[in-house]
Design brief:
By secondary structure, the chain is α+β, with helices and mostly antiparallel strands. The chain contains nine helices and twelve strands. Strands 6-8-5-9-7-10-11-12 form an eight-stranded mixed beta sheet. It has a four-stranded mixed beta sheet with strand order 1-4-2-3. The N and C termini lie far apart (about 60 Å).
Length: about 300
């Protein structure tokens, strides 16, 4: 393929998903595998503030797969791509022992408008879009079932199988000079630490401000807090922005039809290495990338 950028920067991302590691035919139809694989890549572009443009697909297909399943997998990708006016411009299909889908996406962003994790500053607002933990709860519904009502169950399963990347929201932030964005693929415990490390700052998050779907607490009372922090694969966006520009972020969310929640603040680093702190009432916890925490009293 040949494409000619018109004065903009080119943003690329690539992701590979393997049967039994990143997805399972026990919980997904071929359509959902294709949809979700491309969604994960578009979410990476959104985290850079990039407009999706093209994608390439390489698939390893095992012998027990028929043409119908392969067509459904491509249909899942194509249906999502149409929402973003993305064209598939190349790829490859080969035989192998295990289903594997590798997608490369290409997008454009205006010069000096790419969003980097290293741009967070003390005093910034920490925010997230949407609700967190839904995808992990949806997976639980698919694997084990639950007593949750059918409407809520369908919502959570759909959040797992067909996540909606927040590209439109990211693009609506165009007028703000400095914004940090990170897509929530591994959970905010991981994403917050990535921002803290890249920017050499501390992030302070208020646990009670982290948004979640009410049915998570109702039906998974022992798990929902962990899933909010490190359930992963919600493909929402986490970010930081100057407090002076916070209202512009709220307006951008309204414009793009998503919710956005302020969940904390950025502060100067207090230790030799950057940290993420989770606050709840009188307790303060240090959050690692894995989501596990060490309790201590506020002093």
């Amino acid at each position: 393929a040949v494409f000619r950028p018109s004065g903009q920067d080119v943003v690329t991302a690539v992701d590979t998903m393997v049967d039994g590691v990143h997805f399972s035919l026990e919980t997904m139809e071929p359509y959902h595998i294709g949809y979700r694989a491309l969604a994960a890549n578009i979410s990476d572009l959104a985290a850079m503030g990039s407009v999706p443009a093209f994608y390439l697909v390489s698939i390893v297909v095992p012998s027990n797969w028929g043409s119908a399943g392969l067509e459904e997998l491509y249909k899942g990708m194509n249906d999502l791509a149409e929402n973003y006016k993305m064209d598939v411009i190349g790829g490859d299909t080969v035989s192998g022992s295990q289903l594997s889908v590798s997608i490369t996406v290409v997008g454009y962003v205006d010069k000096d408008k790419a969003r980097y994790r290293s741009a967070a500053q003390s005093g910034d607002v920490v925010f997230v879009t949407g609700t967190l933990g839904d995808s992990r709860a949806g997976l639980e519904c698919l694997l084990k079932g639950s007593s949750i009502n059918e409407e809520d169950k369908a919502f959570l399963i759909n959040r797992h199988r067909m996540p909606e990347p927040r590209a439109a929201f990211a693009q609506s932030l165009y007028g703000i000079d400095r914004v940090v964005l990170n897509d929530i693929s591994d959970g905010i415990a991981n994403e917050a630490n990535e921002i803290a490390e890249a920017s050499q700052v501390d992030l302070h998050i208020e646990k009670q401000q982290i948004p979640y779907t009410p049915s998570l607490k109702d039906f998974f009372p022992d798990d929902y807090e962990e899933w909010m922090l490190s359930g992963g694969e919600d493909f929402e966006l986490m970010g930081t922005v100057s407090s002076h520009d916070w209202l512009e972020v709220v307006k951008a969310a309204e414009k793009s039809g998503v919710t956005v929640s302020q969940i904390g603040v950025v502060k100067d680093r207090q230790k030799e290495t950057p940290r993420v702190y989770l606050h709840e009432h009188e307790k303060s916890e240090v959050v690692t990338k894995s989501g596990y925490t060490h309790l201590k009293k506020k002093g």
